[in-house]
Design a protein that fits this description.
It is globular and about 85 Å long. Helix 2 packs across helix 3 (309-327), helix 3 packs across helix 5 and helix 20 (722-734) packs parallel to helix 22 (759-771). The strands form nine sheets. It has an eight-stranded mixed sheet with strand order 6-5-9-3-2-12-15-14, with no helix packed on it. A five-stranded mixed sheet has the order 17-18-19-21-20, with helices on one face. Strands 29-26-25-31 form a four-stranded mixed sheet, with no helix packed on it. It is built from 27 helices and 31 strands. By secondary structure, it is α+β, with helices and mostly antiparallel strands. The protein binds zinc ion. Residues 290, 294, 313, 316 line the site of zinc ion.
Length: 850
Amino acid sequence: MKDAENPTIYLKDYTPPNWLVEDVHLTFRLAPQATRVLSRIRFVPNPDTQDRRFFLEGEDLRLISARIDGETVTTEVTDEGLICDVPEAAFLWEAEVEIAPEANTALEGLYMSGGMYSTQCEAQGFRKITYYPDRPDVMATFTVRIESDMPVLLSNGNKVATGDGFAEWHDPWPKPAYLFALVAGNLVNLPGSFTTKSGRAVELNIWVRPGDEDKCDFALEALKKSMRWDEEVYGREYDLDIFNIVAVDDFNMGAMENKGLNIFNSAAVLASPETATDANFERIEAIIAHEYFHNWTGNRITCRDWFQLCLKEGLTVFRDAQFTADMRSEPMKRISDVLDLRGRQFREDGGPLAHPVRPESFQEINNFYTATVYEKGAEVIGMLKRLVGDEAYAKAVALYFDRHDGQACTIEDWLQVFEDTTGRDLSQFKLWYAQAGTPRVTMTEDWEDGTYTVTLKQSLPPTPGQAGKSPQVIPFAIGLLDRSGAEVVPTTLLELTETEQSFTFTDLKARPVPSPLRGFSAPVILERETSNEDRAFLLAHDTDPFNRWEAGRQLAKSALIGMIDDGKAPVSGYLDALSRLVTDETLDPAFRALAMALPSEDDLAQSFADMGQTPEPQRIWNGREDMRAAMAKALEGELRPLYDQHLVTGPYSPEAGPAGQRALTNTLLSLMTRSDGGAAARAQYKAADNMTQQLGALSALLANDLGADELAAFAGQWAHERLVMDKWFMIQVAQARPEEAAGVAVALSQHPDFTMKNPNRFRAVFGALAMNQAGFHHASGAGYRLMADWLIKLDPLNPQTTARMASAFQTWRRYDADRQAMMSEQLNRIAALPGLSRDTAEMVGRILAA
Ligand SMILES: [Zn+2]
């Protein structure tokens, strides 16, 4: 691999910066092919080090001039940056560079997209704008002047001056360069306002391309709710006079929390009932909140180095999950987060890309914006809160804000505030940040004379670069029920700290039914021998909504595995339980919809791998189809009445209540379509005045090899809406039969509206192919070849998205010898590519090393 060319960077090698920055003045003379960037930077020696060597990061820059204290200086420029002799004491650095935003397809640094200028500087994009100490522990105030004839010129902070062809912005809050942002374009805004609890009037704007202004109301309301929530729950107030959000079509990530100027993938902002689904609305609300919450957890208190990424991301994901739970339904949010965690993070943890929540080394930091850093990072915060209690959590976080405001911090700083407020020793807890892999907890039980004993054993499998791990602190929430369904022991938190530990419950009248790992109190794999009767009992009676869902899930999984494994008919107990649950009007419709959703193909493949069997993608696909058929038959009499009862008509609202009903009716519709020839789905498609019902109907039709007319009509209706057309591209690949999936993706890649320069469109086709497991893993190998072909085409244009998409191959070791040979052939083909990006080289190298 490319290790010789791409050096590995280690956490243990951290040294403080030699020079600190007091303030930065930047002038941008914007031009698509030759933008001039003039920088004036006041450097001061860092008292924490004696080293006075001077190095500024810079990539793809054309240096025009460099001066120190007004005198031209000689510099040595390399591919990575610039070296120069500097005075011993404070000095003023001035440089002028030229960059070409129009040629920047990597979407890092300053780039042009759809005729507008935009930036993305996290993690290391600022070095593509000018020479600078591009590391998060260098924090400075920025003043920015933008010269351009574009009508809207935006940067961080408050606007201080504006005139014909220019605007000046000043951000009074010291920040690292990764939070720098600039936008210039022909944009229109939806304005709003917010008054903070101390009375500061804040101007709000959502900036979009002309024509999109009618899709901003929901985002603006979500922003106001987020601002209020952070004041009420965390006591955090906004700290500038203006908060701008800009929607950009070509964007690698979801959104970016630049100080006072958040830049969003347009898919994470724009929504109208006609064009966005309920899931889109919920995601937009969560992302708006997430980026806003970064203003304190990330911006005011930032990361010392990129190894600490989870410090800002884990905490902010945890905060946005709390927000969504408060705005919508706490149990539903927990269930969907756990589905996501198992689907993405457990998958990562179990394969060649496993890494600790705080990684210890990287070649390309862009490759560590992962489910482990984000989602497991948030789980770690949740466990900490569970262990110390809500009150201590609130005190510790308040101390964190007091103590570290304006600083660049580490995980040690974060844990210290918990140790200082609670007196608790967190050294063992800290292993959650250091050890990779998903812990397995085995639970066994004993019953004797009114005493019930639970024995828990933990183990942590080896992961790349890590073996021989130590036991972690696992908060294990458990409740006990009696056979009538009454709770005899309410939720109790057991702390598992040893490899093996027993816990007893005394004075019980009869052997209880345990409800273990309530609320998914720790991100572990629980192994326990249990009967389908007990699962059905918990599905009917558990007072913990998460575990109620979990019991149904396990029941579905065991029934499915039986069907796939030896063609058994589904356990009738499962279908009976499902039928009772679906018609139980005391249950949230959203909960019922989720309970009807089958475990994903990937989830089932992992289950087979865990049992020591080789997963067979086509058989898994067949098994799920058979199960759907069995469900449709078992629920035959209930489907239509339930559907009619819950079908939402009348004005659309994205609130959790009607959204849950639409989720339920769409799920019912997909089963109804199996036997009614598509009549109900066609009727829903015709009547739909919102995207959730329109797309739900189309999806039900396509899943049953129907809907060709609707598919064509959909394209005609929405040809002018990029985000809706992404759905059109995606649904065809997602719903394609396994043997046709690669061919469908090929055909779509030749469609005139396909472009690989737009990450959303690329993911719509090839991300969907990776998700269509039986299609991607089809025995012909066509899916593998096609994916590799396109990653090879995309890498020179956009390394970041290429590397991320390469993770489609991360589970390759799970499969049979033929598939492994085909996948490794494609991975090696990518790896051998001359000039392969650092991003993709590292990713493919790690996957192949498994
Ligand atoms: Zn974030």
